[in-house]
Amino acid sequence: MATSATLMLHLTGRCNLECRHCYMDGSPRRREALPFDWVAQALRAAPGLGIGTLFLTGGEPLLYARFADVARVAAEVAGLATTVCTNATVVRRRDAALLARLGFDAHVSIDGMPGHHDLFRARDGAFRKAERGIGLLLAAGVPVTIVTTISRGNVEQFEQIAGWALAAGARRLLVQPLLDLGRGMAIGDQQLSGEQLNRLILQTSDFGNRSAGRIAASIIGGSKRFLLAHPCAAYVCNGGGCHRGVSAEIKKVVVREDGTVLPEATNLDHRYALGNVADGSLAELVQRYFPAGYAAFDRLCRSTYEQCVPDWPAPIVPWDQLLALHSRSVLPAPVGAAPERGCGGGGAGKAAAAPIWIKPGSAA
After folding, report:
1. What angle is formed at CA 142 by the lines to CA 136 and CA 146, rounded to 5 degrees?
2. DSSP readout, 310-343?
3. Which of 43, 47, 51, 184 is most enclosed, with most CB atoms within 10 A?
């Protein structure tokens, strides 16, 4: 079986920072955490479900009490490519050594030069602590990707951020236009204008070209042109005229810190969930979803696509943002019901992921 699907585990809601744009609302006050035993069985079931990519995130995943145990289980799963998403401020030498030994990658978020980053992260000294953690990861041999959220407040710092990532030794720079999700909704006025987004796209491309292969640089998202030509990239494939010919699919499974298991989008309304970790194993939840809940989710995806994508004013479509916002107003209903109108959200953001899927009936 192909292993091209993605599993994203939000191990904990706890974070040592309280970033202004956090789509997860992570903070030091949160205590939710996934049960280790459930996480372990989900990881071992991954190959049987067609899952080949794993993201360990949070909150801050390194604050999860049994992070090292989770990492070791993941490393034992053949063919599972694992990335740890961290703010790097709490990275210790032993953490870096563990990730290097297990062959993991790291995604580290840096959102501007020191002054802006610390302000955005609501913590003085956050930049320098992250810089130190990145240094430990790189020294241990962990491949590091810098993920930078760009808003109106730091768009003029892009060249500095990119230059810093290159000088630090990162292998890749991912540029995320501010999303209207989580705490980011409180600073929605900081989303980029269309003109700023177009300029950012060009700057990102130019920077990557100038680096002469030393670092890859790209915008997180997909082009509107691509989504119009390939709607199956926007989670709306059910075999009807699709060149991939699948009957139904889930390309990414997201397990939230409270145990809710969601299809595709981290901030999706929980009415569309596969269930909760208390309801059964990951394989069981996936198998139950196709006859019981997939039709409503498919309808949500299709109505969001039809109402939002064709007339979206920017070249980058924030698909996950649109789907999440739309899911709050569109009630799960049988296929064939009249679609509810309206396309919420604005600005730029993450578009659809690459074609990856869990097919109905898959099991560990």
Report:
1. 85
2. TT-SSSEE-HHHHHHHHHTTS----TTSPPPP--
3. 51
Region of residue 245 (left: phi > 0; alpha: psi -120 to 50; beta: else): left
pLDDT tens per residue across span 116-162: 999 999 999 999 999 999 999 999 999 999 999 999 999 999 999 99
Residue 158, helix vs strand vs coil: helix
pLDDT tens digit sequence for 323-362: 999 999 876 755 444 444 456 544 433 333 332 234 334 3
Closest C-alpha among 321, 259, 268, 275 to residue 297? 268
Contacts of residue 255, defined as CB under 8 A and 6 or more positions apart, other chains included, come to 7, 8, 9, 10, 34, 42, 261, 262, 277, 282
By the 8 A CB rule, do 347 and 149 touch?
no
CATH code reported for the domain at 1-364: 3.20.20.70
For the chain, what are the domain ranges? Answer: 1-364
Token match 């309801």: residue?
Answer: 279
Residue 86 contacts by C-beta under 8 Å, 6 or more apart in sequence? Answer: 60, 61, 62, 106, 107, 108, 133
Which candidate, 275, 268, 257, places its Cα nearest to that of 30?
257
In this structure, are residues 227 and 233 in contact, taking their beta carbons and an 8 Å threshold?
yes
Residue 31 has a CB neighbour count (10 Å cut-off) of: 10
Q: What are phi and psi of 198, to 5 degrees?
A: -60, -40
